[in-house]
């Protein structure tokens, strides 16, 4: 599991290729980056899952945090879901109705406004969060939106801390996720390597894996990684 962090150390950059890659470099150099948060005002080579490009224009919130892990791999998929849940709950304080799309996206209505990337590196878990703060302000808050992107940074860091503090005692996020589930009631197709699963999305299990209700023959299937496409409303 992940070691507790007493205080975060913030490293701010006006421009970076990628906040994730910056932490990877520091780890490769032998630096102890446990609890380090790297923030960039703009990324020239932001990354999403599966090598996808993450557009990172000025005005968004782009930050990555590193946590040292104890022996054994952490459940990165569950931690990614937990971060998403905590971010959505923090945004709810501002009356911003964020939904979490399994496995790592944040949605406002039908608009993707953020994503979470988890990667392992030499005993550390690196978690990156990118959020289009300007789009949130335009869509929900109007002219009286976030006073600065620092407000969004703060909400994300609050989610980092909540997740790390909760994980040792809160192993099951399925109930909280259900209240924020973007895929709830949708028919989905999940591609996981060479396998394809389809059916109605039915939330997650305690490990953060997606439950898919198929036909009578297939029953309910559990998928722990993959990409999701929605193809309709099931109920």
Structural write-up:
The chain has 235 residues and is of the alpha+beta class. It folds into 2 domains: 9-178, BirA Bifunctional Protein, domain 2, CATH 3.30.930; 186-233, SH3 type barrels, CATH 2.30.30. The chain has 5 helices and 12 strands. The chain has a 7-stranded mixed sheet with strand order 1-2-3-7-6-5-4, with helices on both faces. The protein has a 5-stranded antiparallel sheet with strand order 11-10-9-8-12. Helix 2 crosses helix 4 (149-166). The longest helix has 18 residues, at 149-166. The radius of gyration is 17 Å and the shape is globular. The model has no long low-confidence stretch (mean pLDDT 86).
Strand-residue proportion: 25-35%
What is the CATH superfamily classification of the largest domain?
Bira Bifunctional Protein, Domain 2
CATH fold category name of the largest domain: BirA Bifunctional Protein, domain 2
In DSSP terms (H or I, runs of 4 or more residues), the helix count works out at 5
Number of structurally distinct domains: 2
Report the top-level CATH class of the largest domain: Alpha Beta
Percent helix range = 25-40%
Distance between the termini: 37 Å
Structural class: alpha+beta
- Biggest beta sheet attributes: 7 strands, mixed
Taking all Cα atoms into account, the compactness measure Rg is 17 Å
Low-confidence stretches: none
Oligomer: single chain
Number of β-strand runs: 12
Shape: globular
SSE topology string: EHEEHEEEEHHHEEEEE
CATH architecture of the largest domain: 2-Layer Sandwich
Strand order across the biggest sheet?
Answer: 1-2-3-7-6-5-4
- Output mean pLDDT: 86
